[in-house]
Write a structure and sequence with these properties.
Blueprint: E1 13-14, E2 24-29, E3 32-37, E4 42-45, H1 48-60, E5 62-63, H2 65-72, E6 98-99, H3 110-130, H4 134-142, H5 153-170, H6 176-189, E7 195-202, E8 205-213, E9 216-217, H7 222-225, E10 229-233
Parallel strand pairs: 6-9
Antiparallel strand pairs: 1-5, 2-3, 3-4, 7-8, 7-10, 8-9
Helix pairs in contact: 1-2, 3-5, 3-6, 4-6, 5-6
């Protein structure tokens, strides 16, 4: 017999059976879930009911029937409630703790600055044509032989310095994705490892992009990037 006032708990669904479309990335920041649709080149948040259900799914690992109904309406986003395996636990870049500070004092060659400028203009064209999808598409080609990528700190600093100089000629402010993608191409061609990181914050909504290797920020200020929560790392 059930004691007076007790309530039967509704059947729950295990989180391991939930999956999200591979081109959709998400993170929790400022109490909200922010999603990035790479193929659709857009950021978005969830309706209130779905937001609560998705939060419980990620943090507590279960869904009630009410939560499942709320998320079923989001099937157009690629949320599959009957997947054979979970893709909710997406890999995330390591927390940023240091920066490549010496790059600002270096004097790169004129040739490396010219190459950096060409790459920045090429990145601008690629992003205009493909949006954020240009990041994984083009880096896959540049990094064909990832097993041979190195962590050459001195060479990294010189190339990042070249891109900082080139940015003065490329014009336009607030080009974080363009500059980071171009520098990632340059590092990839030089067989140097790096990760393009996209971060977001919710209030007010803002997105930012930078380069990182392990815990080290390569082309930005630590105080700036730590105000963002990573949503994508390529």
């Amino acid at each position: 017999m059930i004691a007076s006032g007790a309530r039967l708990r509704a059947p729950v669904r295990d989180r391991r059976n939930m999956a999200i479309h591979p081109q959709i990335y998400f993170t929790r920041t400022g109490g909200r879930t922010i999603l990035l649709d790479v193929a659709g080149n857009r950021y978005f948040s969830l309706p209130h009911t779905a937001e609560q259900a998705f939060s419980r799914l990620c943090e507590e690992g279960f869904l009630s029937p009410v939560d499942e109904a709320a998320l079923r309406s989001l099937s157009r986003l690629g949320i599959d409630l009957h997947s054979p395996r979970s893709t909710l636990c997406q890999p995330s870049p390591q927390p940023a703790r240091t920066t490549l500070g010496e790059a600002a004092q270096l004097r790169p060659s004129g040739l490396s600055i010219a190459v950096a400028l060409v790459l920045q203009l090429a990145a601008r064209i690629a992003l205009k044509q493909f949006g954020i999808r240009a990041v994984p598409l083009t880096l896959r080609w540049v990094r064909r032989d990832e097993a041979y990528l190195s962590n050459d700190g001195a060479r990294t600093a010189l190339l990042i310095a070249a891109h900082r100089k080139a940015a003065l000629f490329a014009g336009r402010h607030d080009r974080c994705v363009e500059k980071s993608l171009a520098a990632a191409w340059h590092l990839g061609i030089a067989r140097i490892r790096c990760t393009v990181v996209v971060g977001v914050r919710s209030t007010p909504f803002l997105a930012h992009c930078w380069l990182q290797r392990d815990h080290c920020v390569l082309n930005d200020e630590l105080d700036k990037v730590t105000t963002f929560t990573p949503i994508l790392g390529v």
